[in-house]
Amino acid sequence: MDAEIPSTTATAPNVFITFSFNSPTGYGTIAAREIPRGKRIFADECLFGVLDYQNRARVQGKYGKLPIEKKRIFDQLASQGHDVLAAFQTNALVYNDRCTMYGIFPQAAGLNHSCQPNAYFSWNAKLQFGTTHAIRDIPRGSEISISYCDPLLSIDGRKEVLARYSFPCVCNICSDLDHGSERRRSEIRRLKSEISRTRRHCPVTLLDLIMLIDLIEEEGLVSLDLANYYRHAAECCRATKQYKEALRFGRKTLEVVETCVGSDSPVFDATKQFVQGLEEAEREVKSK
Q1: Is the pLDDT of residue 6 over 70?
Q2: The pTM is what?
Q3: CA atoms in the 13 A half-sphere facing the CB of 21
Q4: pLDDT tens digits along 177-205
Q5: Spatial distance between the Cα atoms of 90 and 207, rounded to a whole number of angstroms
Q6: Using omega within 30 degrees of 0 as the cis cutoff, is the peptide bond preceding 168 cis?
């Protein structure tokens, strides 16, 4: 997967994207050329971030300390009545390693939400940038989208989160046109709950994990959550001495991580070490 940074500011040219007005969701970011899965579309410097996105004094204080050029970038973002707090709440994304900060990433802010996104936003602590990667091949002329919330939430749950962004989701799932997808997501939620109640490395857990992974893959929801389920499956196999299967799931973990965050992310480094441990365990078994 490509770890280069196409651009680091909102004003730098980006060969991958163009912009278009697409009612009712407003402006959207369009792929100017085909973008392959795993490609970094852009990397964003955070203009500023806060812990409490509802704290008007803190948001306005951070905004007031911005250099003029960065204020102009912020002011160009969509907002309700050009109010600083409203603009922040509409465009801020959760970031940092613990997902406790809300920050403004100018290019990512131009991406609309989809419950079936084709891109993934994450924080790269090594680069100190927010990065956006294609999680599947994006054809030229297609809108690039991320998910503003956990796409596995119920329709009502997603609407509640999206209300903060003043975003009316009109995808087939939210429009109740894709009943099969919503049923699969309901089953995914059930399996997640079941897995959380069972012993971590028991055979039943592994079977549920495989079913869960298959459903998430069918929905096309590639994310670090999917990587975590692959890793959990690898750990289950290792605990039951199924080293070949453990390595297979471990390599899938690394593949998903690289797709979502790139090979220059600390998450990739940690996952690679995990897979190397699985490779060593399999070598030891074969040598006996």
Answers
A1: no
A2: 0.88
A3: 1
A4: 667 888 899 999 999 999 988 876 677 78
A5: 40
A6: no
Tokens linked to 54? 């509802």
- CA–CA distance, 35 with 18 (Å, rounded to integer): 13
Distance CA 32, CA 141 (A): 6
Q: How is residue 164 written in tokens?
A: 């903060």
Structure-token pair, residue 22 = 């697409």
Q: Indicate the class that CATH gives domain 17-165.
A: mainly beta
Q: Which two tokens stand for residue 3?
A: 């770890």
Q: Three-class SS of residue 29?
A: strand
The structural architecture, per CATH, of the domain 179-287 is Alpha Horseshoe (1.25)
- 2 token code pair: 């490509």
- Cα dihedral sign, 10-16-18-20: negative
Domains in the chain: boundaries: 17-165, 179-287
- Note the pLDDT tens digit of each residue in 69-122: 999 999 988 665 678 998 998 899 988 766 679 999 999 998 988 889 999 999
Most confidently predicted of 19-33, 48-62, 136-150, 239-253: 239-253
Give the H/E segment covering residue 65: none
Using the predicted structure, report yes or no on whether residue 123 has a pLDDT greater than 90.
Answer: yes
Place of tokens 């893959």: 217
